[in-house]
Amino acid sequence: MSASDNHNRIQTDSEQLVTFLGPAPSDLDQDNDLDMLPDEQGFPFTASLYPSAPDPLEHNELQPDSRLSDDDKITGFIRIRTKDLCVITRQLASLLQAGLALVPALMALVEQLESVGKNSRSVFLARIFRQIADRVNSGSSLADALRHYPRVFSNLYVNMVRAGQAGGTLEDVLLKLTEMLEKRARLTARLQAALVYPVIMIIAAFSVVIFLMAFVVPGITDIFVQMNRSLPWPTTLLMGVCAFIRNYLWLLALIIVALVVAVSAYLKTPGAKMNWDRWKLKLPYLGAVLLKIEMIRLTRTLGIMLTSGISILDALQIVKGVVQNRYICASLENIHDDLGRGHSLAQAVRQTALFPPILIHTLAVGQMSGSLEQQLLNLAEGYDEEINVTVRSLTALLEPVILLFMGLVVGFIVLATLLPIFEINQML
Questions:
Q1: Is 107 in contact with 133 (CB distance < 8 Å)?
Q2: 149 and 21 in a common domain
Q3: In whole angstroms, what is the distance from residue 284 CA to residue 326 CA?
Q4: CB contact at 8 A, 112 and 62
Q5: The dihedral of CA 45, 48, 49, 55: what is its sign?
Q6: In terms of C-beta density within 10 A (0-12 exposed, 13-18 middle, 19 or more buried), how is residue 202 classed?
């Protein structure tokens, strides 16, 4: 092929890349559904079509202290949301599936991010991926390039990308990562949504009660005190509580703040966080819910990593960064050590005396049948559905309990206020 033909082909390919990118994808909706890029076939490009990443020092207004790591320099105080990472990961997988090489696909993401808008998050993400593309173009692997930005790409993300590149299945691994991140985000959103309404009701209830007892009720009870008559015990109790709130509310607030500070300081001491996490798992009803939530993270992440070709020992080391309970993390370390000594996975899990029997038997059957990865993913889906049912039941239970508590407190205040009035009417 002549040099002239090569020049014409490069120019045509560059024009088609702009057509391929299409409009900017929409943001995630409430169900975290992502808009896919078009599925038209792209064309392979050479890395030389794209310039290397610009010198970061050219943008002085965005550069923090030069002593910081690359990740700190780029992200600063910007928090990269999980849904942003889901969108970008799915887009990269779509570009690779369409036939683009890695560097052109990364630069296409940069162009897409720059076209979305000029908000700070898009600017920083575009800067990150431009530097990632520059590193890859210079001979680094994608996983090594991602490793420079730990605030954006977790150890799990980097290792799965590394396994995908080694196995030649990077597009599939990226899609699995996207699915896992979406499900994790949905689980977090469900738990937060389930807690919002009860928390608001509790705060509102206490605020109303404190307002009534500090400002409204004392004005009424003072009238009874001026009459120099004996008062019913509910009224006397209410007056005592009101007097305490008016005179010592600042002291009560100070005690609460001191307790919060003391507990926070205690949890920072060695071993305290471990004891706290162990105690949470022993709570009635709530402990089982917390364990199931951690089981979802554990089984789903472990299953996806094994499907991606990561060894079981490496996967256990990585999954400790996903599990949030320190006590479970320590158990995973023991499981890792037992596997290194030649024990089977099911035996190692059983010796911890922490995980439910269904997990132990699932691991044993999965290892014998050679379907451990799929069995773990199926177990994660089962736990996910159990959590959905539990969260709905817990929310349905909390609402009437909170309403009942509010009714009892307000009813006591009304009763203590009206009893002296009834007695006065009977005397007249």
A1: yes
A2: yes
A3: 19
A4: no
A5: positive
A6: middle
| Domains in the chain, number | 2
Query: Model pTM?
Result: 0.66
Q: Which domain holds residue 294?
A: 184-428
* Alpha carbon distance, N-terminus to C-terminus of the chain: 114
30-78 pLDDT per residue, tens? 343 333 333 333 333 333 333 333 333 233 232 333 323 444 444 445 6
Sign for the CA dihedral angle at 285, 286, 288, 289 comes to positive
Is the model's pLDDT at 19 over the cut of 70? no
**Do both 148 and 188 map to the same domain?**
no
Within-domain flag for 110: yes
In this structure, what token pair is assigned to residue 176? 């699995």
The answer as to whether 163 is a domain residue is no
Instruction: Return all residues near 20 (Cβ < 8 A) that are at least 6 apart.
Output: 37, 38, 40, 42, 98, 108
Q: Is residue 8 part of a domain?
A: no
Residue 265 is given by DSSP the state H
Q: How far apart are CA 191 and CA 183, in angstroms?
A: 12
Hey, what are 192's tokens?
């937060």
